């Protein structure tokens, strides 16, 4: 069951609503809460439209916040409890009661051609080694594409 755990994303990027964008603290707090609940591209699109209408062009660090919320949703669907994204690797700790079909792990990992490890000591963890050429984009895109390639685990 997906409601039994939360998903945390640890990524060294700026994902905030700057004071220069929304000055009113209450409005800002409200927007943080609403962005945190974004769970689909449609919802993200609606939030972007509203932000643009009310406050003007969305700063990059606020766009990062929206994209991170979507990333968290995708990770949550894959039973990932913690996702740490660094320059070198993406570490994904799996929720201990995840309902993942174990027979799907090997074929999914094969598709990564050696860039994915599965660590079973302690909590089960997937560790993806970031390679320059595939993941040249930003960290959110790199993490998102890894999650997309992991989707056969739960489909």
Derived from helix and strand composition plus strand pairing, the structural class reads: alpha+beta
- Number-wise, the strands total 5
What's the total helix number? 5
Tell me the strand percentage band. Answer: 15-25%
Order of helices and strands: EHHHEEHEEH
C-alpha termini separation: 15 Å
Mean pLDDT: 92
Low-confidence stretches: none
The percent range for helix content is: 40-55%
Shape: elongated
Strand order of the largest sheet: 1-2-3-5-4
Biggest sheet overview: 5 strands, mixed
Radius of gyration: 17 Å
Structure overview:
The protein has 155 residues and is of the alpha+beta class. The chain is built from 5 helices and 5 strands. The chain has helices at residues 25-36, 41-55, 60-77, 105-110, 139-150; strands at residues 8-11, 80-85, 89-94, 116-119, 125-129. A 5-stranded mixed β-sheet has the order 1-2-3-5-4, covered by helices on one side. The mean pLDDT is 92.
């Amino acid at each position: 069951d997906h409601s039994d755990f939360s998903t945390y994303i640890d990524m060294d990027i700026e994902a905030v609503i700057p004071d220069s964008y929304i000055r009113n603290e209450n409005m800002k707090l409200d927007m943080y809460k609403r962005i945190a609940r974004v769970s689909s591209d449609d919802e993200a699109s609606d939030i972007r439209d509203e932000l643009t209408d009310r406050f003007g062009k969305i700063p990059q660090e606020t766009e990062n916040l929206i994209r991170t919320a979507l990333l968290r949703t995708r990770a949550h669907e894959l039973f990932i409890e913690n996702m740490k994204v660094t320059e070198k690797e993406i570490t994904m700790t799996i929720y201990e009661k995840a309902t993942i079909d174990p027979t799907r792990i090997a074929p999914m990992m094969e598709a990564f051609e050696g860039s994915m490890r599965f660590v079973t000591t302690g909590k089960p963890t997937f560790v993806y080694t970031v390679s320059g050429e595939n993941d040249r984009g930003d960290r959110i895109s790199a993490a998102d594409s890894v999650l997309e390639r992991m989707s056969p685990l739960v489909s």
